[in-house]
Design a protein that fits this description.
The protein is built from 12 helices and 13 strands. It is an alpha/beta fold. The chain has one domain: TIM Barrel (Alpha-Beta Barrel). The strands form 3 sheets. It has an 8-stranded parallel beta sheet with strand order 2-3-4-5-6-7-8-9. Strands 1-10-13 form a 3-stranded antiparallel beta sheet, with helices on one face. A two-stranded antiparallel sheet has the order 11-12. A hairpin with a 2-residue loop joins strand 11 and strand 12. The protein is globular. It starts with a strand and ends with a strand. The mean pLDDT is about 95. The structure holds (4S)-2,6-dioxohexahydropyrimidine-4-carboxylic acid (DOR) and zinc ion. The site of (4S)-2,6-dioxohexahydropyrimidine-4-carboxylic acid (DOR) has 11 residues, from loops.
Length: about 350
């Protein structure tokens, strides 16, 4: 039986760090395991300009330096945030090209207006941003998409499929050279769509969508800490996601979508969407991959496919994971000022833990 695994150090291709005291509390958690992370721009106000992205990167840098000095680990010193711009109907193509050319951003994020947390300034119609997308295709800039339609008449469980049929499919045909990441894919339809494309199309998958389906969230009581967007789907979709993640296909890679909200804003009559999984992502992934005898595919999914898609070098450091005989005790929450954030509960005992990053 395998009880130790050494892989190239992973990256997180979809992460919410927030700002201020929340960021100070969570950045060190990610930096302990991950070398780089694509940082989502859905702040209030959002990160819409090159100057915003520069300033946000500087705040992240400052926060993780502070975190690394208090945690005292060597790993945190090498964390690199990869910045994104938040696409709006008003985004100027020249701003995006300049921010990318100057090395400030690595991608642009498209939120359909109203799709999720802090998406009010998002895109109302693809036609409004076509000039930006054309400039991105010409300049080899990656577009990250939150793939859900926002029309109120569409059922929440169908929103990814309808988005793919109505928006992503046509966009893919209109701009074949644009490099697109369908963020946090959650459905069979989404996986099939990615696999049907011949080039320039990939998807991230979250640990929670690999571990859970909608029954975990809704049977026997409603569990607000499992509420996220896109919402958890049926078990058949979960199975398809596990097959995609563990199958070695380079078009699928890790994006945790670790999205911290304080417990009080989630345990509420109208709770926020988001799962804070940064502390135990690698334990969860090892668990999921081992369950389908695919531990040999974990490195590709967590540490190689994403970097290759983003055309960035692979990390040089390695991460060692060990499997223990008794369940790993993860912290159940982290403190954020006077409040706390609840850590993702995978619902099953985990035996793998990160031993070291070297
Ligand atoms: O669950 C989610 N939380 N999904 C998103 O798309 C956004 C995120 C957040 O920012 O909280
Ligand atoms: Zn997200």
């Amino acid at each position: 039986m395998t009880n130790r695994l050494t892989i190239r150090q992973p990256d997180d291709w979809h992460l919410h760090l927030r700002d201020g005291v929340m960021m100070e509390s969570v950045v060190g958690v990610t930096a302990q395991h991950f070398c780089r992370a694509i940082i989502m721009p859905n702040l209030v106000p959002p990160v819409v300009s090159e100057a915003d992205a520069r300033a946000y990167a500087a705040r992240i840098e400052q926060a993780y330096r502070k975190a690394s000095s208090s945690v005292g680990t060597a790993n945190t010193a090498t964390f690199t945030p990869l910045m994104t711009l938040y696409l709006t109907d008003q985004t100027d193509p020249a701003e995006v090209v300049s921010a990318y050319g100057n090395g400030v951003i690595k991608a642009v994020k498209l939120y359909p207006a109203g799709a999720t947390t802090n998406s009010a300034s998002g895109v109302t119609s693809i036609d409004n941003v076509m000039p930006v997308l054309e400039a991105m295709a010409e300049n080899n800039i990656v577009l990250c998409i939150h793939g859900e339609i926002t029309r109120t008449s569409v059922d929440i469980f169908d929103r990814e499929k309808v988005f793919i049929d109505e928006v992503l499919g046509p966009l893919r045909q209109r701009l074949p050279e644009l490099r697109i990441v369908l963020e946090h894919v959650t459905t069979e339809h989404g996986v099939d769509f990615i696999q049907a494309q011949s080039k320039n199309t990939a998807a991230t998958i979250t640990p929670h969508h690999l571990m859970l389906n909608r029954n975990h969230m809704l049977v026997g009581g409603i569990r607000p800490h499992y509420y996220c967007l896109p919402i958890l789907k049926r078990a058949a979709h979960q199975k398809k996601l596990v097959a995609a993640a563990t199958g070695g296909d380079p078009r699928f890679f890790l994006g945790t979508d670790s999205a911290p909200h304080t417990a009080s804003t989630k345990e509420s009559a109208c709770g926020c969407a988001g799962v804070f999984n940064a502390p135990n992502t690698m334990s969860v992934l090892a668990h999921v991959f081992e369950a389908v005898q695919a531990l040999d595919k974990l490195e590709g999914f967590a540490s190689e496919h994403g970097a290759n898609f983003y055309q960035l070098p692979l990390n040089n450091r390695t991460m060692s994971l060990v499997k223990q005989n008794t369940p790993v005790q993860h912290a159940e929450q982290i403190q954020v000022g006077a409040e706390h954030v609840v850590v993702f509960d995978p619902g099953e005992p985990l035996y793998w833990s990160v031993e070291s990053v070297n």
